[in-house]
Specification:
Elements (H helix, E strand, L loop, with lengths): L9 E2 L2 E2 L5 H4 L3 H17 L7 H5 L15 E5 L7 E4 L10 E5 L3 H11 L2 H7 L4 E2 L4 E2 L17 H18 L9 H13 L4 H12 L1
Antiparallel strand pairs: 1-2, 3-4, 3-5, 6-7
Length: about 210
């Protein structure tokens, strides 16, 4: 599944909104679209609390991503399972249903992916989750677990990262039919990871890691 494409008022590492409208005017079509959108927002918003620019950058969810980091680990904010991935596109903008954090290098990223996607991690974090309407709120509860900072000199950490890389390569080779929902794809990936050659070893290592 590829990322959704969207047009955002961003130039380089800055936005083109509010006080930067003089910069926006360098792009006449985008300027017209943005100002039309602002008028529609002002005419139809339920309260006068947030402008369109403030809503788009709510709690600095947009500007804190500028400039984009080379490597970010992302995971779903809610769901029945902790599900994580590595984003290696610095131009990608992470939407609000995903939580993200930067990593120093791919090895650290693969270590975190292997830990976060482990069935044991979901089992361990479930008692800490609050319940939403149809699924659990993972939120930041996963970081209440004793996940150690990655240490490349630690053989266990290095082996977990190695398994994470192997799993990522296997997943990259999978083919999915057009029209499959993300729910079906997630289920397929979970089943694939449960039956992978490294599944038992990884589960034992993560269980030991988290105590």
């Amino acid at each position: 599944m590829g990322a959704d494409k969207a047009v955002l008022p961003i130039e380089g590492t800055k936005t083109l909104m509010d006080g930067e409208h003089d910069h926006l005017d360098r792009y006449p079509d985008l300027a017209k679209w943005w100002r039309d959108a602002e008028r529609l927002w002002d005419d139809n918003r339920s309260s006068g609390r947030l402008s369109l620019a403030e809503r788009l950058d709510f709690r600095k969810g947009l500007t804190e991503q500028l400039p984009g980091a080379p490597l970010r680990v992302v995971y779903g904010a809610s769901g029945m399972y902790v599900t994580a991935a590595l984003v290696d596109d610095p131009n990608a903008i992470i939407e609000h249903k995903l939580y993200w954090g930067t990593v120093a290098n791919r090895q650290e990223g693969m270590y975190l992916l292997a830990v976060l996607n482990s069935p044991y991690t979901t089992e361990a974090v479930r008692p800490l989750m609050s319940y939403g309407k149809d699924e659990r709120d993972i939120d930041k509860a996963v970081w209440e677990l004793p996940i150690p900072d990655f240490d490349p000199a630690d053989p266990k950490h290095a082996r977990i990262a190695e398994i994470g890389e192997a799993e990522a390569q296997r997943i990259a080779e999978l083919k999915f039919e057009d029209g499959k929902s993300y729910i079906q794809i997630r289920r397929t990936l979970r089943d694939f990871l449960f039956s992978s050659p490294d599944a038992e070893e990884l589960d034992l290592m993560v269980t030991e890691l988290l105590g």
